[in-house]
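User: I'm putting together notes for a lab meeting next week and I want to include a structural view of one of the chains we've been expressing. I don't have a solved structure, so I'd like a prediction I can at least talk through. The sequence is below, exactly as it appears in our construct file.
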Amino acid sequence: VVMVLENRQVTHFELFGLLTPELPVVLYVALVFILGGFIGLLAGSSLLARANIRIKAIEKDLAKARKERDSLLARLSSSSDGGADNGLR
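Assistant: Thanks for the context. Below is the predicted structure for the 89-residue chain, given as structure tokens.
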């Protein structure tokens, strides 16, 4: 509230040769914060999507490794005398 009350003067900005309309400074500051929030959300959502894809691939590899381990343990226990797993678990 203090920022809005103290920054009511109007101004314009020139960026890349384009001149913006004359608006209060606080409006430009608010627009920059909102735009920065949207850009942050877009960047974060892309990173989150990539992380989820990587997690799914790792979970798939883990399931495959567990299945292979279980089959090896089953073969080991069936080939050993008395069905002991020789402490591999």
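A couple of points you could mention at the meeting. The longest strand covers residues 10-11. Strands lie at 10-11, 14-15, 18-19, 23-24.

User: Perfect, that's what I needed.
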